[in-house]
Amino acid sequence: MINMKKRTAIKPSQSILIRVTAVILAFITSSLFIALMGHNPLSVYSSMFDGAFGTHYRIIETLKVAIPIILASIGIMIAFKMKFWNIGGEGQILMGAFMATFFALQFDHLPKPLLLFFMFIGGFVGGGLWALIPAYFKEKYDTNETIITLMLNYIALKWITYLQYGPWKDPAAKGFPKIANFSDQAILPKLFDLHIGWIITLAIVIIISAMMKYSKWGYYITVIGESRDTARYSGINIKKTVISAVFISGGICGLVGFIQASAVEQTLSVGLSAGYGFTAIITTWLSALIPMIIIPASILFAALVKGGSFIQTAFQIPNSAAEVLQSMILFFVIGSEFFAKYTLAWHKKERSIK
Amino acid sequence: MSNQVFVKMENICKSFGTVRANHNVNFQVNQGEIHALLGENGAGKSTLMNMLSGFYKPDSGSIFIGDQPIVLHSPKDAIKYGVGMIHQHYKLVEVMSAKENITLGQKGSFLINPKKITQEIKAVAEKYGLPIDPDKKIYDMSIGEKQSVEILKVLYAGANILIMDEPTAVLTPQETEKLFVIMRKMAEMGCAIIIITHKLHEVMAVSDRVTILRKGETVTTVDTKSSSPKELTDLMVGAQVDLSIDRPQVKRGLESLKVNKLNAYDENKVHVLDDISFSMYSGEILGVAGVAGSGQKELCEAIAGLYPITSGEVIYDNENLVGHSPAEIIKKGITMSFIPEDRLGMGLVASMDMIDNYLIKDHHNQKGLFLKRKPIENLCNEMIHKLDIKTPSVFHPVKQLSGGNIQKVLIGREIETNPHILITAYAVRGLDINASHTIYDLVNEQKKKGVAVLFIGEDLDVLLELCDRIMVVCDGKVMGIVDAAQTSKEALGFMMAGQKMEVLHD
Question: Which of A174, A277, B467, B478 pairs as cysteine with A90 (C-beta 3.0–4.6 A)?
Fold first, then answer.
């Protein structure tokens, strides 16, 4: 029979090995699903890879998807590190986009760098303030942040829908419910064929990793996440740390909104967040809250998105097949947590009865 | 007492991960005997008994009840064979009555006859001399009464092998005496009683035989009558041990902290600190005795600025500390090394290494945005050397260290800040005798340096030997402050149970 044994300790290398194994097992399990649909899993996977990385253009397209996932994951990671379960990335992205769009539409007479700077700040503050609502209620009334962040997603979504159909509807769109396109002033420039959102993202990943590792602030976040009692005992100002960390967490998600609105959509629309706020929860967890691992994990998921739409045309497989694969990966990774805590030992039957 | 073997455990092995909790343990209990299971913390007593009561399964080995070999899959199985365990922490539903708690989880018909059950319970209670009112709610009961309910619960379920895990930990000496009477009565009625303990005088007082475990292995089983506390200790520790604790004579200095009429309430509006007043002097260890949960934790936290105070003052250096933040109080040189029940709870972060744990106190002294870890690394290495802490390196998560070493890290850190006032609560909880003595030495060293120490303890023998004065608390009130050299355990016991004594002011 099988016995469960608690692990005493786990090395980071083992922890990564367990996760990589989980991802591989997810691919294997999904291949059964693909085989059931009557396709050869290997050729489907290889054309997914081809669809994501096959040409220079495809690589750029994949990275365009990876950027918002990386950035949102970094934001979410900060909150998760504190055991503040921010699943409101989606709403924070939309509110960041809303604030950035406000500047883009109202101040398009400003010089480009200044306008983009205002949009950047607007995006950050928009997402940050949206995240502060659940943080305030949690600290003040001990409410459940999971529920509130989730619900605020829908409020943000409906708010943007309202703007799109109501006050911000573009009169020039002939009755079509869309918000006016941004002027050139409000669009992020490109570097190496990719909008400079990638530079912003890379900079934030580096800054946040350094802050988490070497700063007092990052240290406080870790202590609070491990034990609030210890944090209190050591004289850490818990409220200040939580509020500032959640503001920055939401703010970084808000920046995703700014980048997507400015560089990708070039306007504001309800579809702008494209579920990145939710995908980022998966990638954050997948990367074990380590900033540097967020990058490969997010690129993997971006490749799944792009590869998924590619096989749709190549094999006539619905895009949902790729989504099944994504869910499968999450399922296996969460399941693999068990193996991070326990090992299994095979046992002979007990010799109790003589 | 008959010599019929009732329970037999043979060559029991059990490991948790790499920790070998039990290795080839042999253990036998006769019918009608009180059998003490003695060993230091971590010797494997609880593990062994958890296997007998069906909570754990042995990796190998056999268990016999009577002559019948048995395999236990759950505590329910165990009770079928008549094995019942009374845990150290009571598992009772507070809002229910004794009767409801006793019948909880019992098999029975869909419709119950409350009167009949009351009668049955009363009959069992009378048989064993357990004083109990079946309709009294648990929250109205004293600790002693709650324990009676726990015992009755397993007896009513049909147990005749009772395992008691440190049953006296929360009792006053008087309540303990009553419990012993009940235990002897149960033994007379033909039950087998196993008592897990590490208190020697209790073993001597109540048991017929003693089995000693050390590091997961059986050392031997001896007759209590033909043994002595000294012999038992040597067997338990595995070496000749000096049991006495040093109390260096230090001239008492000036008053360094004065607590004046401190009052506090918890969330349920219970008066947890009730007009507490006392003074601490430099170069003196003030012990705090009391049944667990008498306000010790709240007192510690109140002084450290972690507990909301309704009224009263904590005067330090002519200044009232009440209302200051914990950070400000730490900066004034008051340090609290509070060690809660789960040991790692408040003072340390289990998954962090020594350096990051050191920073829990030191981060206040660091200026700027970033933390400097290099100087801390050197300090930690010095501490490892000075206190003989056993760890592979300063980068090792503290949770992987043994209990004694964790405690040394905690107390070492507090001492490193050169405190004026040191508050320790349960500093030796869960430590073996050698590790405990290291901690006593550390505390004494601070006393000699002129630090005022507040030592909250559990073991009265230790308090009597180590402290200069002892303050006894009960229900959040100070029952008395006595000179440790001139008081007795009985006197402390009376005060712990709520009798007021003269307050010793100087």
Answer: A277
Tokens of A17: 């090995």
- Same domain, residue pair B164 and B305: no
- Please tell me the distance from the alpha carbon of residue B225 to that of residue B98, in angstroms, as a whole number: 37
Cα–Cα distance list, A168 to A49, A119, A162, A181, B399 (Å)? 40, 17, 8, 11, 57
Classify domain A40-316 by CATH architecture.
Answer: Orthogonal Bundle (1.10)
How many whole angstroms separate alpha carbon A49 and alpha carbon A303? 7
Calculate how close chain A gets to B396, using CA atoms only, in Å: 10
Q: Which of A68-82, B25-39, B242-256 has the lowest mean pLDDT?
A: B242-256
B335: enclosing H helix or E strand? strand B334-338
Q: Could you tell me if B259 and B227 lie in one domain?
A: no
The residue whose two tokens read 């200095």 is B253
* B187 and B313 housed in the same domain: no
The b/e string for A67-90 (b: 16+ C-beta within 10 A; e otherwise) is bbbbbbbbbbbbbbbbebbbbbbb
B97, B153 in Cβ contact below 8 A? no
Amino acid sitting at position A234: S
Choosing from B179, B209, B237, the residue where a domain stops is B237
Q: Is the pLDDT of residue B481 over 80?
A: yes
Reported confidence tier of residue A123, pLDDT bands at 50, 70, 90 = very high
Whether B432 is in a domain gets the answer no
Distance from CA of B105 to the nearest CA of A (A): 27
CA B63 to chain centre: 29
Does the pLDDT of residue B506 top 60, yes or no? no
CA distance A198 to A144: 34
State the amino acid at position A204 in one-letter form: I
Helix (H) or strand (E) holding A2, with range, is strand A2-6
> pLDDT tens-digit profile of B98-133?
888 888 766 665 666 778 888 888 888 888 877 788
Q: Are residues B199 and B323 in the same domain?
A: no
Helix crossing, A216-226 with B354-362: angle to 10°? Answer: 110
Query: Above 0.85 for ipTM, yes or no?
Result: no
Among A233, A238, A351, the strongest candidate for a mutation testing the B interface, having the largest count of B CBs within 10 A, is: A233
Three-state secondary structure call for residue B264? strand
Count of structural domains within chain B: 3
Which residue range(s) make up the domain with B47? 5-237
Query: Are B326 and A347 inside 8 Å of each other by CB?
Result: no
Task: Tell whether B220 and B366 lie within a shared domain.
Answer: no
DSSP classification of residue B239: S
B445 found inside a domain:
no
Count the alpha carbons within 13 Å of B247 in the hemisphere toward its beta carbon: 16
Same domain as B391, residue B475: no
What is the distance in angstroms between the Cα of B299 and the nearest Cα belonging to chain A? Answer: 14
Best residue in B73, B358, B360 for a mutation probing chain A (most A CBs within 10 Å): B360
Q: B interface toward A at CB cutoff 8 Å? A: 15-19, 57-63, 69-71, 304, 306, 325-330, 336, 338, 345-352, 356, 359-361, 363-364, 366, 369-371, 397, 400
CATH number of the domain residue B269 falls in = 3.40.50.300
Chain B contacts in chain A segment 158-217 (CB below 8 A) = 214-217
Q: What is the 3-state secondary structure (H, E, C) of A232-282?
A: HHCCCCHHHHHHHHHHHHHHHHHHHHHHHHHHHHCCCCHHHHCCHHHHHHH
pLDDT at B17 over 70: no
Other CB atoms closer than 10 Å to residue B138's CB: what's the count? Answer: 18
Phi-psi label, residue B28: left if phi above 0, alpha if psi -120 to 50, beta otherwise? beta
> In this structure, is the dihedral angle defined by the CA atoms of residues A155, A161, A163 and A165, taken in order, positive or negative?
negative
Contact residues, chain A, for B67 at CB < 8 Å: none
The full DSSP string for A293-336 is: HHHHHHHHHHHHHHHHHHHHHHH---THHHHHHHHHHHHHHHHH
